[in-house]
UniProtKB/TrEMBL annotation:
Molecular function per GO: ATP binding; polyphosphate kinase activity
Cell division as UniProt keyword: no
All copies of domain Polyphosphate kinase C-terminal, residue ranges: 340-502, 517-687
UniProt organism field: Persicitalea jodogahamensis
Family the UniProt entry places it in: Belongs to the polyphosphate kinase 1 (PPK1) family.
Function: Catalyzes the reversible transfer of the terminal phosphate of ATP to form a long-chain polyphosphate (polyP).
Name of the protein in question: Polyphosphate kinase
Domain Polyphosphate kinase middle, chain residue ranges per copy: 132-314
Length: 707
């Protein structure tokens, strides 16, 4: 069973009732640890939650710590205005992270590794290889690993520039002694070729038991082969974090951003690399590396017994005993092969609940467009170009078939830029027009438009989703996608794509007439506030009023203030988050009428659903963007209404399942502690319930039953 944090992780300032983003992020990270700690979760799934924690904490250090360090150089008047005190906050953060990492190590070494063993899988974890495996380990190293490693000395006549450390790669740093030659030690490093070989290696079974090893340990076991004539005195892992962008403009209003930027420029502030080392690295080794790297010893961040636990995400398949039971993707009853998908959409809108639904209809949507002789134009926002995305091949095919294809993509340091550029070139060579995001024009929306020439003029078909195309094939994320030929929605989407092609900043196009779509930097902020204000008006008139927001992150202070105002006016507000939440629930006189739950389960929650009671004429919107300052003011995100009664009823039940969850949801208190939901009612697990809902929807006669 879950446990909550043992003590509050912040002090609430009621004059500024917004929870700190950094501490809320850490609260979410702690929730991931709780899921990894849960013994009812299969062992390899627990590893994947540890991988999720590792990713989140690395991303936290990549983006949040540099920003806070930079803010230490900003004038006091700005910090007071922002209610931000970076020195105190950093101290609290580092203490919290240290405690979480200790818990991480305990869960892994004392919980998950033994649980794997109970399932007949032995993960070598900082232990010598058994005699029966040593020949295999040696042979594997020679045949698969040796050609990819690069042992390099760091000093003397064998010296090499230490800038050879590549960001996001793993290394061993060694202290060596020459055999038979007493004297000063030699320092060297060797890469761990995870990209070429993989992080985990399956070893031969012994007595019916499976065995898996870290590649790190296989390299370490063969170190004598890499440095013949030397004795290894110390060997510790090192990783250099890729430089991040100091995205001040994503955090603060323009006027504040300009002042902060000017002050940092005057001080010649440069974003440093970040260095993570294996726990227990000797002081002598740290001192040597800090001297060669030109950094302070204090800038090394110690991690666990291994680095980059994100790789647990790719842990080898271990069989049914240690994994969740496979959930077969549900075919969509109205979008089965055999009938043109455009004919289906001419009759009615269609909704996909991912990953529960099969993605075949989305694949068919683009494949059919690629070969349909009447389709003339295709516009799509890819966000990230991925080699394994079905969409890339469809767009290449469409362009080669003579259609105008325009694709918008993001070049982001968090992505594999080389892969993005490689596939962008392939698409461009085929005739696809690629438009990359600009600093003032970053397209985060998950949208596509297909224009089809018919006798009466043009038919338009749209895809609008809450999550990226590149994620679909992995079946790891919860999202929703709408396929529609709705005239006003498709016309407005064409208007948006027409604007995006201009590559101009939104401020020059402020008055684009979006009525059905909510587009950030245009009308999204205004539209959401109007919808909340309508509920406030209804409540003050003595009518029932309610708002439910299912979202990843809730950070924008103006939006939170509006929710506070609505709650104080009697509107019932329920927030379902998966990530950060800067709204403080159940704060006397401020948020008594607001509850916040957080859900972490088998699949990563990525969908955004906005519900408004509207005097019983309930309205639901889906969106690609969270309520953060960045998404509302510095991205192009798209929200869209679900107008079909049957589809809306499905999403209403989806929300009911989330709100009824008493297995994987936790309730957030005023201090962002994660409390289990104690209930005497029937057990409800939202993701399982939503999978069953999807099955019911597709296994009965469509549109003829009440959900």
């Amino acid at each position: 069973m879950f446990i909550s944090e043992s003590k509050p992780i912040a002090v609430i300032d009621v004059s500024h009732p917004f929870f700190d983003t950094n501490l809320s992020w850490l609260s979410y990270n702690y929730r991931l640890l709780l899921e990894a700690e849960d013994e009812s979760v299969p062992a390899t799934e627990r590893l994947r939650h540890l991988a999720g924690y590792s990713y989140q904490i690395d991303e936290f250090f990549r983006s949040r710590i540099p920003l806070l360090n930079a803010m230490r150089g900003v004038s006091k008047d700005i910090l007071d205005k922002l209610n931000l005190y970076p020195d105190t906050l950093l101290e609290h953060i580092l203490e919290t992270v240290e405690n979480q990492l200790t818990k991480f190590d305990e869960i892994l070494s004392s919980g998950v590794v033994p649980a794997l063993l109970e399932g007949d899988l032995h993960l070598y974890f900082k232990e010598p290889f058994r005699e029966e495996h040593r020949d295999f380990v040696s042979s594997f190293f020679v045949e698969k690993v040796f050609r990819h490693v690069q042992p390099v000395f760091l000093e003397g006549r064998r010296s090499a520039k230490i800038t050879f450390f590549e960001p996001d790669a793993l290394y061993f740093v060694l202290r060596l002694l020459r055999r038979g030659e007493p004297g000063e030690p030699w320092f060297a490093y060797v890469n761990i070729p995870v990209g070429e070989v993989g992080r985990f290696v399956k070893l031969p079974k012994l007595d019916g038991q499976k065995h898996v090893a870290f590649l790190d340990d296989i390299v370490l076991a063969n170190m004598k082969m890499l440095f013949p004539g030397y004795e290894v005195q110390d060997c510790f892992a090192l990783r250099v974090e890729r430089e991040s962008e100091l995205a001040v403009d994503d955090e603060f209003p323009a006027a504040v951003t300009q002042r902060i930027t000017r002050q940092l420029e005057k001080k010649n502030y440069v974003l440093p690399h970040q260095y993570f080392c294996e726990m227990g690295m000797p002081a002598e080794m740290k001192a040597y590396l800090s001297d060669r790297l030109g950094i302070q010893v204090a800038e090394f961040y110690e991690r666990g017994k291994y680095l980059y636990y994100q790789d647990f995400k790719a842990f080898p398949s271990t069989g049914k005993k240690l994994e969740y039971t496979h959930q077969k993707a549900v075919p969509h009853a109205e979008l089965r092969a055999g009938e043109s998908i455009f004919d289906v959409l001419n009759r009615s809108d269609q909704l996909l609940h991912l990953p529960y639904h099969s993605i075949d209809p989305v694949v068919r949507f683009f494949n059919e467009a690629a070969v349909d002789p009447y389709v003339r134009e295709i516009y799509v926002s890819l966000y990230k170009i991925h080699a394994h995305s079905f969409l890339v091949n469809s767009l290449i095919s469409a362009a080669r078939n003579g259609k105008r294809v325009v694709a918008f993509a993001e070049l982001n340091p968090k992505f594999d830029i080389h892969e993005n550029i490689h596939w962008a070139r392939k698409m461009k060579d085929a005739g696809v027009k690629i438009i990359f995001s600009l600093p003032g024009l970053k397209v985060h929306a998950k949208i596509a438009l297909i224009k089809r020439k018919v006798k009466k003029g043009w038919d338009r078909y749209a895809y609008l989703g809450t999550g990226g195309f590149y994620r679909m094939t992995s079946r790891e994320f919860v999202d929703h996608a709408l396929l529609t030929s709705h005239r006003e929605i498709t016309n407005e989407l064409e208007l948006l794509f027409g604007y995006l092609v201009t590559r101009d900043v939104p401020s020059k196009f402020k008055y684009l007439p979006f009525n059905y779509l909510m587009v950030s930097q245009f009308n999204m902020n205004k539209k959401i506030i109007e919808l909340i204000d309508r509920e406030v008006k209804n409540s003050r008139s003595g009518l029932k009023a309610a708002v439910t927001v299912k979202i990843n992150q809730l950070q924008d202070q103006s939006m939170i203030a509006k929710l506070y105002q609505a709650g104080q006016a009697g509107v019932e507000i329920q927030i379902i988050v998966s990530d950060c939440c800067c709204l403080i629930p159940e704060l006397p006189t401020i948020s008594d009428n607001i509850t916040v739950t957080r859900l972490v389960d088998r699949y990563a929650e990525n969908s955004r659903i906005f519900y408004f009671y509207n005097r019983g004429k309930e309205e639901i919107f889906l969106s690609s963007g969270d309520w953060t300052f960045r998404n509302l003011h510095h991205r192009i995100d798209v929200g869209f209404p679900i107008l079909d009664d049957y589809l809306r009823s499905q999403l209403l039940q989806v929300l009911r399942n989330y709100l009824a969850d008493n297995q994987k949801s936790v309730k957030l208190d005023t201090y962002q502690n994660n409390h289990p939901i104690v209930s005497d009612s029937q057990k409800v697990r939202a993701q399982e319930a939503n999978y069953r809902l999807t099955e019911r929807v597709e296994h009965r006669t469509p549109r003829l039953f009440n959900l």
